[in-house]
TrEMBL record:
Gene3D superfamilies: NAD(P)-binding Rossmann-like Domain. It comes from Hassallia byssoidea VB512170. The keyword Amino-acid biosynthesis does not apply. This is SDR family oxidoreductase. Belongs to the short-chain dehydrogenases/reductases (SDR) family. Residues 36-63 form a coiled coil. GO terms for molecular function: oxidoreductase activity, acting on the CH-OH group of donors, NAD or NADP as acceptor. InterPro entries: NAD(P)-bd_dom_sf (IPR036291), SDR_fam (IPR002347).
């Protein structure tokens, strides 16, 4: 296990869910955190919480879909924050659950622009610095949906399959450097994911996890922490994790209460 104390970690989608859980576990380990998300107020709340742990934090209000904003944010980081050691491409979402021929094209654009293009933009503007400094680690948050397709998951599954391919391609492109690339691909995790997918329909979102003990954001963050603290010659290429109640994207054990 290597120490990540004082390493600079950039986390996208840091205002909630897996991103916020990563911030907490990495702050406990002494990392310096660049927390990026669209929701400034949520970022400030998280920063206030982490301040109690004496964490060193820099906030970025950022929409990863905006290439120029990403380029500007990375190129204009203060010098003391510019040498990013770990990039966690966590920002992502699902919108809708429709048959492909009945899908909402705005939902498609939002998923493609966030899950694929946003990840590409951050990687494009952060990784050259890693190559120059001859150190670094990129962690992409994929999904079991990138390995298995489920009915009405069409475009979302396509975006996560792209994350899988991009992660593998980046690993090949960085061969010969010490930079590591990891894809962490969870199954069911209880976050705001379903709320976002169903455009704020809380009742429908709750049904997703009914009768199931899903993964928590902390469970996923714990796996990410394991990956980034392995000895420098070890690369965890890919991790698939699911709750015990899930065997595939379509096979879920739901317990009924008597």
């Amino acid at each position: 296990m290597i120490s990540i104390q004082n390493q600079i970690v950039l986390i996208t989608g840091a205002s909630s869910g897996i991103g916020a859980a990563c911030a907490r576990i990495l702050a406990d380990a002494g990392a310096k955190l660049i927390l990026a998300a669209r929701r400034q107020e949520r970022l400030q709340q998280l920063a206030a919480e982490l301040d109690n742990k004496s964490a060193d934090i820099h906030l970025l209000q950022l929409d990863v879909r905006d290439r120029l904003a990403v380029e500007s944010a990375i190129s204009n980081l203060p010098p003391e924050w510019s040498d990013i050691d770990i990039l966690i491409n966590n920002a992502g979402l699902s919108r809708g659950l429709d048959k492909l021929h009945e899908g909402d094209t705005q939902d498609w654009d939002e998923m493609i622009d966030t899950n694929i293009k946003g990840l590409l933009y951050l990687t494009r503007y952060v990784v050259p610095g890693m190559v120059k400094r001859n150190r670094g680690h990129v962690v992409n948050i994929g999904s079991i949906a990138g390995h298995q397709i489920y009915p009405k998951g069409n475009v979302y599954c396509g975006t996560k399959a792209a994350v899988k391919a991009i992660s593998e391609g980046l690993k090949q492109d960085l061969l010969g450097t010490p930079i590591r690339v990891t894809s962490v691909d969870p199954g069911m995790v209880e976050t705001e994911f379903s709320q976002v997918r169903f455009h704020g329909d809380s009742d429908r979102a709750q049904q997703v996890y009914q009768g199931v003990t899903p993964l928590t954001p902390d469970d996923v963050a714990d796996v990410i922490f394991f990956c980034v603290t392995r000895p420098t010659h070890v690369n965890i290429n890919e991790v698939i994790l699911m709750p015990v109640d899930q065997a595939s994207v379509t096979m879920v054990n739901r317990r009924t209460e008597n």
